[in-house]
Structure formats: structure tokens, C-alpha cells
Design a protein that fits this description.
The complex is a heterodimer of chains A (341) and B (324). Chain A contains 11 helices and no strands. With 341 residues, chain A is mostly helical. Chain A has a single domain, classed as MetI-like (MetI-like fold). Chain B has 2 domains: 220 residues, Rossmann fold (3-Layer(aba) Sandwich); 74 residues. Chain B contains 12 helices and 12 strands. The relative contact order of chain B is 0.14. The chains are: A mainly alpha (341), B alpha/beta (324). At the A-B interface, helix 8 and helix 9 of A face helix 2, helix 3 and helix 6 of B. Chain B: This is ABC transporter ATP-binding protein. Chain B: It comes from Streptomyces flavotricini. Chain B: It holds the Pfam family ABC_tran.
């Protein structure tokens, strides 16, 4: 049976603008921090798009929002390219030895700032370390921080936002105000203050800081979409047929509200990786001996005139990684939001 | 008596003031009996039903007074957990738009089975078998193959039958159907109403049928309550009301039905609009639209008075109205 247009009931809930007067609170974060991109995406998701979908719908028998979205994704070249890139990045993050035989911490000062040579295609940095090896090993820190921070922020944000949106009342008001406070913290300034007191050299303080600043954005989206979903007749119907709060929230509201959260989280992942690099560049993120693109970019920046290769490779790797995740986020959004089709 | 609503008052707090949606409604339904509640949009018929089911949004809604006796017990004095167990098992509701009343991400089998999982503690597998049984019962062809299908894969009439199946799953003693056929086309309307009436007879349930379709009412209802501005203005057995209405509003509604012998003439309509619930007119709420209104109608509220065997009317001039 052909399905020319997606039926209304199968769409994810429309994105309700959140409480009036709350929009302004987005502004403080938008002061040049790397989280801005995700914020823009979040905002554009919330805005209803005027036109009805006009594109040709899937010809096959569509079964549900999720299988429909998967079908859409598989045919999207952006999704294929970005997921291949991400797959590659994840593999080298787990097993960097596969493509780099050297040790990123084994450096030879006599080779300081030398250019490309056989076996060392990217040349050497100021300390005489192999740039290729360091670039490969740097993926681990970026991917770890990006994935862990996104998981943390998405879990914390969607649980808090979902509960606030579902139950409403004073808990909702309290959470919204707390989220506003976190929105008000400028990312870079906050990072300089919070992370400069940390002495650990692991990735976890950075992950923790990004989760701390990232959850309100997810919570806000989650809250909004739960409020939209809980007003649906089927939630009322479930209540009329004797479902309790837990069942209504988990079985009837959450599956219908989770799509926007997934979209925003995927896009945020790219920006979190960029944020880690920013903080490492400023010297408050990851610290040596952890290998990180941000640290390498920071060390290479003063030498950009006489040895540009030291900067180009880690910076290029960073850009490609962020691009891959943002492309993935875009593709997921296109698939999950029928209004954008 | 299965259900008795006594002097129920419901208000909604809004930004512009308190909207009095239900102002002292009384009605009752017995086992095996069908009560039709008629009225325009905003007359309080759905809000009364929501109050009975206990699914009123509180706040902004508030039950300001009255009693709802279900099998002799006042629902309004029960704890929420106790009411939740009654909902679905002992009283159930059928909603207007079956597409939006079914969860789009769950298969209909899962949603039907949920009734047994929640109230009877059945395993998922047993619940699914029960779901197939239910779908057979509401005459959905190839129930076994379709039990895993999603709501959007069914037609409007079938979706409404699934809603009916869900409401009847645990054989409740009271069903509230809130405009169950409004979203369907006419031929399907008749099928769905017939099915509902048949199952009601079979299970000897009380049925409250909320509608504004007088044609549907004539076929299935035993008695009628006409609501206007949150009050019952007339209550009567179904045949008597069609023969001789005792309230000018009911008369207006009956005159508004298009008739075959009226060909070429303009359709009758009650003048004006339903009142704003924030500012209900003083006296009889219907007075600004009433062709029979006199001075007393603007100052005094007419009580719902006995006007015959099982009949009541809230009009000072019911005798004139009955006489024609």
C-alpha cells in the first residue's frame, strides 16, 4: 500500500515554543562559545516550519516513525559519509596502533619542527614528537569526551526535563530557573574558572564540566516535547483506562517525545568535541601527558609561520571530526522531523 | 442505581476569571441503560464526563461541589489510587478521535494488551492472545494477522472499533462515549453505533453517550439530558422529547434538524451564540436567544422542575412549550 504523505498521527509531536519569556535566556551562552551552533539548531527545531511537507514520501509500506526514519537515513548520502567517517574515528580511537606504529610520547628533540620525511608523513613538532602519531592518538581523547559528555548531558537533561514537563508545578518552575542559571554561564569563562582548580590529568573533569553546562539545553528540549506529547489524546485515553503516572510517562509519553532530544544530542556531540579542544587550547582542558588535538594546536599556534604543518594536521583532524558529527546530527534531524522533509 | 451525579459544579480558573463550565448537573444511569447527553460545544457535557472519569485537568479545573456516586460510593471522596483501579476496569471511556486516541508508536495489540497487563497482571504473551480475541469481538477482519499493526494502518472506523474494544476489554459496568462517531463518515457511524449498542446489551452496561447528533440519539438512547451553559435544561425519556419538547432550547435543536419535506426552504437555526462561560447571563442562561423569553427570565434562574412522569424542564413556561 503506497503511503503518499506521512499521516499526522505518526509524526513526532510539534515543537511547542516553550514558556513565553524564556527565549531570552538563550542569549548569554551565545557569546561566541562553541555551544552556539547546537543552540541555533535547538532553536530552529522549536520553531514550527510554515510549509507542509511537499517532497515525495517513501514508496514502501511505512511501519512507524522509527523504521521510517531508518529507511530515510539509509538513503541519505550525508548520513552514509558521516557515519563512515565516525566509524573510522571510533576504530582509531579504540585501536590507534592499527594505523600508527609509533609512541606519541616518544620524542626526539633533535628533530624539532622538521617537515615530512619517510615514515613520518606529517613531520615533527617543537618537542620532536611525530605529528602523525599524535594526531591519530588524539582522536581517543576527543571521541571519549564527546561521547561521554553527550551521554551524560542527554541522560541528565532528558530525565530532569522529562519529569519537569510531565509533572509540572513547582518542580518544573524550579528546574527551569536552575537551567536558566546554567544557561547564563559563559562557556569559556566558566571553563577557565571551574577547570583551573582541577589537578587531574584525566578526561573526566572536562566531561563533567561539559555535562554541567550541556544538560539544560537537552532538558529544555525534552521538557518542551514532553509537554507537547502529554497533551495528546492517547495519553488522556491511557489515563481514562487506568494507567498510572509511571506507565503513562514511560510507555506513552517518552517514546513520542524522544526524537527531538536525540537530534539535539547528536548535533551537540560535535560541538562538545570542539569545546574540549577549545578548553585544551586554553590550557584548562586536557593536560599532558594526555594526547589531545587541542593541546597540540595550542603548542603549534606560536610557530604557525615557520612550521605550519604542526598546526594543520591536528586542526584538520579536529575540523573533520566535528564536521562528521554535525553532519550526522543533521541527517538524523532530517529523518526524525517530517516537517523538514 | 449504577451512577448518580448530584449537583456537580466544575470551574476552570483562566487568566480572565473563573469559567463555570458545569453548574449543578444531576443525572443518573442504571445498568443496561443508555443516557444521551446532548448539547452544543461548551455546554459542559464533556467536562461532566471527565469529572466522572476523574481525568479532569486539575488545575486549571476544579470540582467546586457535588457528589458522583458510583455503585453507591462517592468517587470524589476516594483516593487517587483507588480511582485509578476503577478507571478502565469498572468504568471506561471512548474518545472522539480514535486516531489521536491511540498511541502512534505502539501496535494496537500492545495497546489492547496493556489493559490486561495493568489491571489483571497478565504476561505480555497472554495479553496478546486476549488482544486478538478482543479484535475478533469488535469484528476486525484477520485479527490474528493485524494484531501487530500500528494505528495509522487502520481505517477510521476500525480505529474507533479498536478504541471500543479497549474500553470494553475488562467488561466495565459503565461506559462513557464522548462523541464516538463525530470523526467518522455516515455509513461507518451507523456500524460503530450498532456495535456499541450490541455490546452494551450483551454486557448489560450503563452507557453515557455524549453527542450533538440527534439522529444517533433517537436510535440508541433510553433517556436524554439536554445541557446548556453547564446546566441540564431538560431531561426526559427519548420518545417523549421528540414528540413534545418541554424547553424552548430543545425545541430549537429539534427544529434545526434538516427534514426532507423542507426542500427549498432555509434551515432553521437558533439565533445567537452559546454564552461565554466567564459571564453567563443572569436569570435563565438561554434568555438572550429564547423566542419565549419574558422579564422574569432575565432575573430569576428557573429550577429544573418535574413536568411529568420521569420528565423535568428548567423553563418557567414549560407548559406553553409542551402545548406548542
Amino acid at each position: 500500500m503506497p503511503e503518499p504523505e506521512p499521516e499526522p498521527g505518526r509524526r513526532p509531536p510539534a515543537y511547542d515554543p516553550l514558556q513565553p519569556g524564556k527565549g531570552e535566556a538563550i542569549a548569554p551562552t551565545g557569546q561566541g562559545g562553541p555551544m552556539d551552533l547546537a543552540l541555533d539548531e535547538a532553536e530552529s527545531l522549536e520553531k514550527p516550519l510554515g510549509d507542509a511537507p511537499t517532497g515525495p514520501g517513501p514508496q514502501e509500506k511505512a511501519r512507524s516513525l522509527w523504521s521510517d526514519a531508518w529507511h530515510q537515513l539509509r538513503r541519505n548520502p550525508v548520513f552514509i559519509i558521516s557515519s563512515l567517517m565516525i566509524l573510522f574515528l571510533v576504530i582509531i580511537a579504540i585501536w590507534p596502533q592499527l594505523i600508527a606504529s609509533g609512541d606519541p610520547l616518544q620524542c626526539d628533540l633533535s628533530k624539532s619542527q622538521q617537515g615530512s620525511s619517510p615514515g613520518h608523513p606529517f613531520g615533527y613538532d617543537t618537542q620532536g614528537c611525530d605529528v602523525y602519531t599524535r594526531t591519530v592518538y588524539g582522536a581517543r581523547a576527543s571521541i571519549t569526551v564527546g561521547v561521554c559528555a553527550t551521554l551524560g548531558a542527554a541522560l541528565l537533561g532528558s530525565v530532569l526535563g522529562g519529569l519537569a514537563g510531565f509533572f509540572g508545578g513547582w518542580g518544573d518552575s524550579l528546574l527551569s530557573r536552575v537551567a536558566d542559571i546554567f544557561f547564563g554561564i559563559p562557556v569559556v569563562l566558566g571553563g577557565l574558572v571551574f577547570l583551573s582548580v582541577v589537578t587531574s590529568t584525566t578526561v573526566w573533569p572536562v566531561v563533567g564540566f561539559i555535562v554541567l553546562l550541556g544538560w539544560p539545553q537537552i532538558a529544555r528540549i525534552g521538557r518542551g516535547s514532553v509537554i507537547t506529547a502529554k497533551q495528546n489524546d492517547y495519553v488522556q485515553a491511557a489515563r481514562a483506562l487506568g494507567a498510572g503516572n509511571g506507565r503513562m510517562l514511560l510507555r506513552h509519553v517518552a517514546p513520542n517525545a524522544v526524537a527531538p532530544v536525540i537530534v539535539v544530542a547528536t548535533i551537540a556531540l560535535g560541538t562538545y568535541i570542539a569545546l574540549e579542544a577549545t578548553l585544551s587550547f586554553l590550557g584548562v582542558g586536557l593536560r599532558p601527558p594526555t594526547v589531545s588535538w587541542g593541546i597540540d594546536i595550542s603548542n603549534a599556534a606560536p610557530q604557525i609561520r615557520n612550521a605550519p604543518h604542526m598546526l594543520l594536521w591536528p586542526a584538520g583532524a579536529l575540523s573533520l571530526t566535528v564536521l562528521a558529527f554535525i553532519m550526522l546530527g543533521d541527517a538524523v534531524r532530517d529523518a526524525l522531523d517530517p516537517k523538514l522533509r | 442505581m449504577l451512577l448518580e451525579v448530584r449537583d456537580l459544579h466544575v470551574e476552570f480558573r483562566t487568566r480572565d476569571g473563573v469559567a463555570k463550565a458545569v453548574n449543578g448537573v444531576n443525572y443518573s444511569v442504571d445498568e443496561g441503560e443508555t443516557l444521551a447527553v446532548l448539547g452544543e460545544s461548551g455546554s459542559g457535557k464533556s467536562v461532566t464526563a471527565q469529572a466522572v472519569m476523574g481525568i479532569l485537568d486539575v488545575p486549571p479545573g476544579r470540582i467546586a461541589g457535588g457528589e458522583i456516586l458510583f455503585k453507591g460510593k462517592d468517587l470524589l471522596k476516594m483516593k487517587e489510587e483507588e480511582r485509578r483501579r476503577i478507571r478502565g476496569a469498572d468504568m471506561a471511556m471512548i474518545f472522539q478521535d480514535a486516531l489521536s486516541s491511540l498511541n502512534p508508536v505502539l501496535s494496537v495489540g500492545a495497546q489492547l494488551g496493556e489493559m490486561y497487563e495493568v489491571h489483571r497482571g497478565m504476561s505480555r504473551k497472554d495479553a496478546k492472545a486476549k488482544a486478538v480475541e478482543l479484535m475478533d469481538r469488535v469484528k476486525i477482519p484477520a485479527a490474528r494477522e493485524r494484531v501487530g499493526d500500528y494505528p495509522h494502518q487502520f481505517s477510521g472506523g476500525m480505529r474507533q472499533r479498536i478504541m471500543i474494544a479497549m474500553a470494553l476489554a475488562l467488561e466495565p459496568s459503565l461506559i462513557i462515549a464522548d462523541e464516538p462517531t463525530t470523526a467518522l463518515d455516515v455509513t461507518v457511524q451507523a456500524q460503530v453505533m450498532d456495535l456499541l449498542a450490541e455490546l452494551q446489551r450483551e454486557l448489560n452496561m450503563g452507557l453515557i453517550l455524549i453527542t450533538h447528533d440527534l439522529g444517533v440519539v433517537a436510535d440508541v438512547a433510553d433517556k436524554i439530558a439536554v445541557m446548556y451553559a453547564g446546566r441540564i435544561v431538560e431531561a426526559a425519556p427519548v420518545h417523549e422529547i421528540y414528540a413534545a419538547p418541554a424547553h424552548p432550547y430543545t425545541r430549537g435543536l429539534l427544529d434545526s434538524i434538516p427534514r426532507l419535506d423542507q426542500k427549498g426552504q432555509e434551515l432553521y437555526a437558533i439565533k445567537g451564540l452559546p454564552p461565554n462561560l466567564l459571564a453567563i447571563p443572569s436569570g435563565c442562561a438561554f434568555n438572550p436567544r429564547c423566542p419565549m423569553a419574558r422579564a422574569v427570565c432575565r432575573t430569576d434562574v428557573p429550577p429544573l422542575a418535574q413536568v411529568g412522569q420521569d420528565r423535568a424542564s428548567a423553563c418557567f413556561f414549560w407548559k406553553e412549550c409542551l402545548g406548542g
